[in-house]
Structures are given as C-alpha cells and as structure tokens.
Amino acid sequence: MSHLTNESEDGMLSKDQTGSPLIDEGNSSGSAGGGIVLKKGPWTSSEDAILVEYVKKHGEGNWNAVQKHSGLFRCGKSCRLRWANHLRPNLKKGAFTAEEERLIIELHAKMGNKWARMAAHLPGRTDNEIKNYWNTRIKRRQRAGLPLYPPEVCFQALQESQQIQNTGGINGGDKVHHDLLQTNSYEIPDVILDGFKANQDAFPYVPDFPNLSTSSMLMKGFGSSQYCGFMAPTMHRQKRVRESPALFPGYNERNGIPLFDQIQDDTGDKIAQSFGLPYPFDPDPTNKDPLPFAGMQGSHALLNGNFSASKPISGPVKLELPSLQYLETDLGGWGTSSSPPPLLESVDAFIQSPPSGTVQLECLSPRNSGLLDALLHEAKTISSGKNHLSDKSANSSTVTPGDLADSCLNMCETEWEDYGDPISPLGHSTTSIFSECTPISASGSSLDEHPPSETFPGCNVKAEPVDQVWTPDGEKETSTQLDFSRPDVLLGSNWIDQSTGGPKDQAMMNDAVASLFSDDFGNNYKNMASGTPTSNQGWGLGCCAWNNLPPVCQMSELP
DNA sequence: AAAGTTATCAACCGCTATTCC
DNA sequence: TGGAATAGCGGTTGATAACTT
C-alpha cells in the first residue's frame, strides 16, 4: 500500500507533505533509501493499521525498518512516535483525571520538564500528552494570573524540605535522592550538595545535578536562564502587566486583605478543583498550616536575608522549565500583589521582579545563563582586581548593606564593561540586557498596566533593616541550623578542593555571591516596599546580597 | 454571522545519549 | 576507538475545533 493510496483514502495531505523534501540518503531520522519521499503530517487509519500490523509481527524497535518491511512511507522516528503516542496498547485516551492532574503537578514540581519520566508515573499516558497538558495549563494559569503550583504543593515542598533538613540532610548523614544524583563526580563539597539535595525533592526545579563540575553547575544549574526564568522576551508587555496583579492571588492589592473573588477565574477554579483544592486558598491566618504563607515567608525571608531552616526557600535554583513557564512568573509580581507566591513563584519573583515591579529582569538570564553565570564571571574579574569583598562576604552575618553597595555597584558597572559587547556572560549583549531591563513605564503606558500605586500593595510592608524585623524565633532557627538555601552558608563552609586539598576559591565565591546579591536589589526592594518608584540600577547582574536586603515584609503584618 | 482569539492535539525538528559495527 | 545508526527526549509548530467579541 503506497502512501498515495493512504492519502487518497483519507484525503489528507498535509502542507508539509506537499512540500516535503526528499528525505533520505542517510538521514538520521531514518528514512528509507532510494530517495523515497516520506510522508509527513497526520497519520491515516490505514497507515496506523500497517504500523500496528508491523509491530505485532516484529515488535517494537528498529523503527527504521518499518518502512522497508511494511511499505509505510514514514520515517522511523515518525513510526515510533505514532506507536508510542497513539497505537500502543493500554493507552489512556481522554482528559486527565483529577488525580492525574494532581500527580502531574506534583511530578513537575519535582522533576521539571521531564515528560518521559513523568509519563512513567502515569500509566497509559504519554510524555507528549503530559507535555501538552502542562503547556496548556501554564498558559491558562498565566493568563489567569494564578500561580503555577497550588499552594498545597508548595507547602508540601516546604514541609518536605524542612523535614529533610531536620533529619540530617545537611551533614550528609542522609543522602536524599541519590537516584537523582546518579553520579557523584562533582567537585562540589558534599555539604553543598547535601544542602541542595536536601531541597531537591521539595523544591521544584532544584536540579538533578547532572554530572557537573563545580563551575559548570554554578554556571548552569543556578543561573541558567531557564531557571531564573524571567519574562520571556516574546511576551507582550501588556499581557505581562495585566496579569501581574493576580500573580499572588487572593489578596486585595490595596489593603492586603484576602480578596479571593479577585481570582474567580473559571479556569483557575477548575484547575484548583481538579486537584481537590479549594482554590482560592483559604488564607485563614489562624490555620495551623499556614499554607498560603509558606511561600511568602520563604520568599520574604529570602528577600530580607534572614533565613530560617524551618522556612526553607528554594533559592534561585530553578531547573528544567519550559520556556513558557517563565511567563508564569509575572513581572511585577512582587509589586502588584502581596498574596503569597508559591514557592517557585516566590523565588522567581524574588529574582525577576524588580522591587519597583516595573523592571524586566529578563536581563538576568535570558537564554543560557543567569545568576551564577554572572557570578562566576564576576568572580573571575573580582578575583583579579577587586577582592576587597572577600572578608565581608565570607562572614555573611556581618555584612551590612552599605558594605556591599559600592562594591556591587562598581562591579555592576564595570564588569559589564569587561564583558563587553556584544555578548555578555549571560549570553546577552550588554546592550540588549539593559535594554531588556528597561523599566516598564511607571506611569503605566501599557494599556493594562497597573499604576505604580498598586505595585506593592497587599501586605503592609515596612522597609526596615532586617535585624529589626526578623522575629526572635526566626533568628533562633537560623542560628541553630545551617540553611543551605543561602549561598552564604556555602561560603561559610570550608570547601576543600579535592584535588589540591586546599581551600576552594572560597574568596572568589564569597566575592561573587556577595556581589551578585548586593545592594541594588535591596534598594529596589526597599523602594518597592515604600512604594517609591525606583530605577533599575544594577539589575543587569541581579545584584543583591543575601545579607543585604534590609527591607523586609514583616510577617506579622501579613494578612 | 463573521472575524478574531484561544485551546487542544498531533506531529515534526533538533539535539543528545546509547548502541552497534 | 571512532563513526554511524538508532532511540529517545524536549521544544516547537501547525491544524483545527471551540469559544468570544
């Protein structure tokens, strides 16, 4: 049976087919030899029958042989895909059940875009289905201004992380998720890995730690654009701005009082219902499981630089996100709403949302680079001439905002020059980076843009020094446990270079981290907190110090 | 009713890892 | 050991149905 027959049978000939080139001559996609035109586009029922028959006879695999033996004018790749996604037995068709949806969300929180791995947990479902579902979902939720993950998942993640940390995930006693850490050839001290590993299960997008050297991990794992995921460059600003207020759904932008009818988006409700969540979430502060605020706390802890091991945050580690997902975290999320971001969103928001809520932080990690990309790069530069930060950052608890401000600013100003156009270490031209960082007009020129007055609404934020704000409990917790969500913990660790037995560029890392998280973010955030429009100074490299984020949203004042 | 928009699904493409020779 | 073949994965695109204006 020829493809012509098939086409005539179903009357289907895709656009691709008509223009399909001669596929062959050793094409790796597996066409048959002899210059045969392989068909593309939708499969016909007769083609399906041929393929099914072939697999019955010969079994799966050796897909390139299908064409030869069955006369099917399809490449092996296409045959495999068709079989896997549509023809193989025990495939489930139809919409995902609520349970499946819930599972997908959980799995995605743990695995990221590992569709095939996720599919393994969903019998009868294909990776393609899951992928499509997820991409649709994030679009939907983005449009609805809903967080990508339900608070439940975030809270669970936090709890798991906390539990892991409390049960020895830090000191290497309990190596969690070694299945995800299949190789151990990292040059990273165990203590660091443990810290990350401890969070890996709990925090979405914590990388699987592939076989990476320290530098490569730092260069890619942390800072990679896909992880820092800021606004996708292709997303229309109007859309972003329009959606931003609802990023942290459920809070009145003006007074911080839960206002859940703000998110009575049908889609969102359906989604929430789909995994059994009463969404919008019950924000009852008396709830002993302050779900919705877990992320918030974490995120604000992140911002104010006071971390509690009991309030772990994922840190700016975000892996394996599809590009679309970065749209999810909306520009201005911090600035336009105060409702608690879920874990990831909070982190994203932390990274990407300029304090003013008007700065595009896509500049931080547009493509294949990001925070630690810059960090390492900065470190090199710093170590070559600007090591004055080492001492301060090494002892993170003593670093003051002022200590870092100048340094960071200088760094931000000068390092970019060092990088030089057209390509920055972030994979951006400096020009493009800063152009992309151009703040959205504070006056809200965009059609749907919210006025600045709404940029930092909900929670009553006091821009106060951290040490005046953080609760004693938080300090206790912080003091009793290393918090590996903080880079400065890593700095504080005595890294031993396994090859040399000596210190492992600690100063370099100190500098880099300190510089990376230097004052600009804090300033911007402070301005955000105070409602003062800010510039986007220094955002090009995501400068904010973990210990240098004086402004803090007082948790006690959260709704 | 028509045009525009969005959602969904199916398929392709490029890349990487693995296997085979 | 290196290159080709194969398998698999994730991202993206295109077609079309459904929905909205």
From TrEMBL:
GO terms for molecular function: DNA binding; DNA-binding transcription factor activity. Residues 15-30 have a biased composition (Polar residues). The keyword Glycosyltransferase does not apply. GO terms for cellular component: nucleus; pollen tube. Its main location: nucleus. Residues 1-35 are annotated as: Disordered. Pfam families: Myb_DNA-binding. Keywords: Activator, DNA-binding, Nucleus, Repeat, Transcription, Transcription regulation. It is found in: Nucleus. The keyword Transcription regulation applies. Residues 38-87, 88-138 form the Myb-like domain. InterPro entries: Homeodomain-like_sf (IPR009057), Myb_dom (IPR017930), SANT/Myb (IPR001005). It comes from the Eukaryota. One of its GO terms (biological process) is regulation of DNA-templated transcription. Residues 35-87, 88-142 form the HTH myb-type domain. This is Transcription factor GAMYB.
